[in-house]
Amino acid sequence: MGFIVGLRGVRYQVADVSRSLAFYSERLGFKVDKQHLPAFAEVSVDGLQLILSGPGASGSRPMPDGRKQEPGGWNRIVLQVKDLPARIEALKKAGLRLRNEMEAGPGGKQVQIEDPDGNPIELFEPAR
């Protein structure tokens, strides 16, 4: 088949693109690549392109059967970090919402946080 020409990015549905843009750029350090407010924006970090689609974006329109594209769920981007325990404390002090406490396993440690719309983000520190 071979019709895939590359990875474009990950799309998150958000209620307020400006709010999400501030969250990803100011709280997590993503680079702002494009912004067409209030419909959508694109941010990136280390090769990951994250597309933030608001209610007015073409990538947010309802499906033909009436289902609405909404924020949240359990699929998520995974961002690698250093010193996860210290990062968790800093995020808590900044008022960010954590879905769980830090978990550890043979592959490393992780925690899930949420963006302002409830979209999950996993912070991951690999085992040494």
Walk me through this protein's architecture.
The protein is an alpha/beta fold and 128 residues long. The protein is 16% helix and 34% strand. The protein contains 2 helices and 8 strands, in the order E-H-E-E-E-E-H-E-E-E. The strands form 2 sheets. The protein has a 4-stranded mixed sheet with strand order 1-4-3-2, covered by helices on one side. Strands 5-8-7-6 form a 4-stranded mixed sheet, with no helix packed on it. Strand 7 and strand 8 (120-126) form a beta hairpin. The N and C termini lie far apart (39 Å). The model has no long low-confidence stretch (mean pLDDT 92).
Q: What would a concise description of this structure say?
A:
With 128 residues, this protein is α/β, with parallel strands linked by helices. 16% of the residues lie in helices and 34% in strands.
Characteristic terms for this protein:
single chain; 128 residues; alpha/beta; four-stranded mixed β-sheet; 2 helices; 16% helix
Subunit arrangement of the protein:
single chain
- First-residue to last-residue Cα separation: 39 Å
Largest sheet properties: 4 strands, mixed
Number of strands: 8
Q: Radius of gyration, rounded?
A: 16 Å
Structural class: alpha/beta
Residue runs with pLDDT of under 50 for 5 or more positions: none
Query: How many helices in DSSP terms?
Result: 2
